[in-house]
Amino acid sequence: MDHTATPTRVGSPEVPLRVLVTKIGFDGHDRGSRLVAAFLRDAGHEVVYTPPWQDIPAVVELALEEDVDVIGVSSLATDHLIVPELMAALRGGGLDHVAVVVGGIVPESEVPALVEAGVRDVFGPGSSRERIVDAVAALGREAQRRKLDREGFAS
Amino acid sequence: MTGTGTGAVETAARSPFDRLRCGDRTMVARALSALEAGGAEADALRRRLHSLVGSARVVGFAGPPGVGKSTLVDAYVARLRSAGRTVAVLAVDPSSPVSGGAILGDRIRMGRHTGDPGVFVRSVAARGHLGGLSLAVPSMLDVLDAAGFDDVVLEAVGAGQSEVEISRFTDTTVVLIAPGLGDEVQASKAGLLEVADVLVVNRADQPLAAETARRLESVLELRSTGRPTPSVLLTTAIDDGGVAALADAIDATHLAAGVASDGPRRRATESLRQTAIAELARRVVDDEALARLGGQLHRGERTLGDAVDEVIERASRPRGGARR
Amino acid sequence: MSVVAPTQLGLPGFEAAKQRWEDAYERQLPMERAIRNRSGIEIKPLYGPDDWDGSGYVERLGFPGEAPFTRGIYPTMYRGRTWTQRQLIGLGTPADYNERVRSLLAHGATAISLLPCNSGFRGIDCDEVPLPLLGTCGTVVNHVDDMDVALGGVPLGEISTAMNDPTPFTLLAFVLGVAKRRGVPFDRITGTSNQSDYISHYVANHMFYRLSQAGSRRLLVDHVEYCTDVVPNWNPVSVVGQHMQQAGATPAETMGFTLSTAIQYAEDCRARGMDADEVLPRFTFFFDISISLFEEVAKFRAGRRIWARVAKERLGAKEPRSWRFKFHGQTSGVDLTAQQPLNNIARVAVQAVGGILGGLQSMHTDAYDEAITCPTEETARIAVATQNILREEAHLCDVIDPLGGSYYVEHLTDQMEAEILAVMDRIDAAGGMYEAVGSGMVQEMIGRSAMAAQERIDDGEERVVGVNCYEHDDDGTAPSPVRPDPDVMRAHVEAFVAAKEARGAADVDRAVTALRRAAQSEDENVFARVVDAAEAGVTHGEIVAALRDELGFGDPLVVA
Fold this sequence. Notes:
The structure holds 3 protein chains of 3 kinds.
Chain A: E1 18-22, H1 31-42, E2 46-49, H2 56-66, E3 70-75, H3 83-92, E4 99-104, H4 111-117, E5 121-123, H5 129-148
Parallel strand pairs in A: 1-2, 1-3, 3-4, 4-5
Chain B: H1 8-13, H2 16-21, H3 25-37, H4 40-49, E1 57-63, H5 69-82, E2 87-93, E3 102-104, E4 119-125, H6 137-146, E5 151-157, H7 161-169, E6 172-177, H8 183-189, H9 192-195, E7 198-201, H10 209-221, E8 231-234, H11 243-257, H12 263-283, H13 288-298, H14 304-316
Parallel strand pairs in B: 1-5, 1-6, 2-4, 2-5, 6-7, 7-8
Helix pairs in contact in B: 3-4, 3-6, 5-11, 6-12, 8-10
Chain C: H1 14-28, E1 35-36, E2 42-43, H2 57-60, H3 77-80, E3 84-85, H4 94-106, E4 111-114, H5 118-121, H6 144-150, E5 160-164, H7 170-182, E6 191-194, H8 198-203, H9 213-230, E7 234-235, E8 237-240, H10 242-247, H11 251-271, H12 276-279, E9 283-289, H13 293-314, E10 327-331, H14 343-357, E11 362-364, H15 377-392, H16 407-429, H17 433-438, H18 441-458, H19 486-501, H20 505-520, H21 526-535, H22 540-551
Parallel strand pairs in C: 3-11, 4-5, 5-6, 6-7, 8-9, 9-10, 10-11
Antiparallel strand pairs in C: 1-2
Helix pairs in contact in C: 4-6, 6-7, 7-21, 11-13, 11-16, 13-14, 13-16, 14-15, 20-21, 20-22
């Protein structure tokens, strides 16, 4: 019998995902980010929530300290244009296992540039709760597995 | 701590433990997650951590939601930073009892420390633990201690129970109370006055703040717990008001306790106690055997104590049918 | 609320006829689910004289131009003068803006507006902004020279200007600097400081805050005081319900929050010793117009009625012109969809009708691509044409308050009024809007309503064409965004940096020092020093930085 009783066995059978929901750049509309944070909480995930106006280095720092699996960037006023810069900064900070998704208003013609930069999904206006939650869960589990492949304390 | 400037070449050559001990943020974050997740990596960590801990001062902040804990912790951290001390913060928020998920919003009030290499903040979800703290918290404090931070601050939502838990394994327990008549009575009932080293009435600009503090003091005068009487302070965290006095009061409790801190041992004991309780709770499942014992109790065929002994005995049995 | 017993109506046979109809209705729709509007009010299938019988007409409705103004704030309403067509525009450099604004003026616009670059809302100048974001959502106006270019050829003093200009109101300061250069007296400058409502920025749209809540509070009163004395035809206060409704507040909550905010500002001005009749005539309001048409009409009618009473009885204004609830309406971007975007033209038209029937004073109609990008010239043209069609072709302006007397609309107006007053009572109980926002209470209410609205859409209770029904009728259009030319923006930044270096350092220092000293003082008018600083060539970013230093930074009052 395994006597190393662990916190995660109390309550949820799985390790919850950790998701950073944030806004970079200048936009301040937070209706979407609040709703998505609540959706993810209700799906059993742990959401680290920030105010708008985060700098790119701040997002990298938060993602690292909070050890998140997914970063959701909400952008309603062109802030997605600096997401490629964020992707580069995350890689520079050794966080390339983290899945990044963007939600909000991204014109169709600008989606390919985000995907090319490494963004895993883009949720446009009208995306259903189900679509967002399912995509984040799948990407998050994948990121968790990637993280476990890295050197840890087990050995 | 030595900060974050560990280059790739250097880190590749060093073991995860060395990197953790040097305050490498990636490894600190990883260790915290490993402890939250439990399992083999957590066990490996715990085996090694004991030799690295014991130098940090651990201060717990607790109080009801909306009383201004994050803001006060933010101001206290700024105070420690101005004194040149490095700080790690563990901020615990409740998990949803329905979904198990959580929104961890403590970062909202701590923005001014982002970008400061001398501050490390980690948000923690309570993950269903009744006391309002995650079971992994005592070990997570060990990690932050081992990583070389001068001060480790634990912030938790208080509901009576968590203050008591916190006080068992922190060096200093700060309890926040909202200004308002009657609150000091509540505090007294919940046993907070017994466990607090420092009592803080935040939002000192509110009309009832001074009166609340005065009443708390008079309640404290009437009791003799054998412990030093906690100081009662007024703060307005939003503009750092009263934070210098708070820092002094916390320093004073450390001085009074002396240099030899038994914090790490108390953290291990509390970790054991809480995990054992949780494990026992997990194993006591609502099954046929429980219903049968309940029936016997109902019919007067057994005493309550007798029935409880049997439940615990069954729960302790290996593969005792309690597994899902 | 006037729900009347049928026997009192003096309508022979009413009761029996109503019973027959109810029976028939129940037979055909036996298990009908209750329908509620966005404010949570249950909507019946039919309204009649038992719901509204016209009693209390003079006190509760009255005539247009007379308190309580339920039917309109002016005696002639749109027969005398239709609403002002005010499209918010802004993109790229000041020269880009000038080109757009001159074209609008050539096409008959009588008022202009200016939307500054989002970076300005954060209080920084263009030389600190990541280039990909510069000028994407508004025009870069960082100092008085920029404003001079932006308003080149625009007859200041003849054209009313509305600017999105939060505390410390640098854009107005730049306009006054330009006016001085051109010799236009300040009393001929007309327009509105949109986004002067700092409380709304702390509640909902968190992109505007620049100073601490307390610092903003002082600046706003300073601004009102300065304008009262020096720029008397300027509207210094625009109380913005729009942000809250966009963030998810129901229409009734929005009106309640907005009126409570206006009360807070009026009381702050009174505390400074200003007279209500001096201040309130230059208060204006700014609202979202959603597609819930009758609810919006009732919201505006109820809002007018409450404000007239509040201004008179609570705020002590004696002159009827102080009781008038003047508002600008913007069709709601929240109702627009990224799916099948051309459909938004129809949505905007319906929203605009709601605003017109609600009696607005000026209007912005959204371009159909507004849910996707900043509007192009073509989509903006259609938005303007929508207003023209409604004004010229639809005969909407022939009759004042044409829905007045509708059993439904009058009953709904009464119900909305009750809902709004309940919200205002909660705010009062929390110590007023300043406190209620500081404690996060308002943000929590909005968050709950936003979640409820989303659940109605997810459950299909609220139907959105192209989103949760008719999803497959894709119209194949995907508007492409307009982005400023990066080379042009880079050149603008370089010119800005050069201009900054070419300034007389002593003048700049003197102006900044005076600004700081005013902020440190208890009683000096800070906005007056902002105006001086702008004239001396101090930039927007420098002004905000100095004031943030002295008055504190506006930490967001975000509630997760």
